[in-house]
Amino acid sequence: MRRIRRPAPDQAQRDAAVAEHHRNVLVDAGAGTGKTTILVDRLVEILAPLGAQGAVPISRIAAITFTRKAAGDLRLRIRERLLNELADVRPGSQREAQLRDALAGLDTAYVGTIHSFADRLLRLRPVEADLSPSYESAEDQGPLVRETLQVLLQAVESGTLVAELIGANAAARADEATRTILDALAAGLQVESRETEWKVYYGIDALVEGFIRQRDIPPPEVPPLPFDFTAFGVAADDFIHIASSVRGESPGADWIVRTASFLRRLKGRDDPVADSERTRRASTRTSFSDTGQSPWTGRPLRCPSPH
């Protein structure tokens, strides 16, 4: 026995969304409020309309979802609804023929994910899409990131990035990209991200991954900011001033004194790439994490009692 649903408070709006044939309909609602039901009802109304509107063959319908599970559930619910409508329709009527045609074509109709829908269009028109007919869809972007990073670094090191980008809009920025990556490497930026217990040290691979993940959104054209030597000098002076009062013999105190001395030598330089690399090396020369002692007192570190 088919369960009879109670009318929703906004049933009139739901019915209007189902019956609308001339305009696009957007349903915005929370989970479990009946969006899929409206979609199924609207599909059946398009395939076998109750009124005088012309029916649309199911071969011209594309029902697109985001996950394979949702696509399978949607196909099942469409089938169930078509069978229920067929059980109630008058035998020999035009609507019965429309429902039977829709049911017969459901197995070959397009009900799937947006990814498979795009793949289907590209398979039909690979030349127009400037793709090889034998292309493959990447389920995991990890290998794509690694391959792109390898090609990028090889092209940058060999000075052939322009050749790699021939025909692409980015070809005009190849020289700028080459200089930027070489400067980043010279400044000490690592190629691959490194994850520690407390922090992730991001590398160039994270930048490549971000571009791949957001490849459908053009990056903003913002001119690069020049290195602010004045701000760097002010920060260095502040550090030197504070460090002048540091006394005592401990790894932490020695590091502060040594860094202050290093910053004094940097004042007046005008190469941000070289300065960044020297600063990074000086600031990471001493590791406090593996000694098991406080960098300030030299005493063993103690974890607080859980009680």
Describe this structure in words.
The chain has helices at 11-19, 35-47, 68-88, 94-105, 114-124, 141-158, 161-164, 174-186, 204-213, 229-243, 251-266, 272-283; strands at residues 62-65, 110-113, 194-195, 200-201. It is mostly helical and 307 residues long. It folds into three domains: 11-124, Rossmann fold; 141-213, no CATH class; 229-283, no CATH class. The strands form two sheets. The chain has a two-stranded parallel ribbon with strand order 1-2. A two-stranded antiparallel ribbon has the order 3-4. Helix 3 packs antiparallel against helix 4 and helix 10 (229-243) packs antiparallel against helix 11 (251-266). The radius of gyration is 32 Å and the shape is elongated. The two termini are 61 Å apart. 9% of the residues are buried. The mean pLDDT is 84.
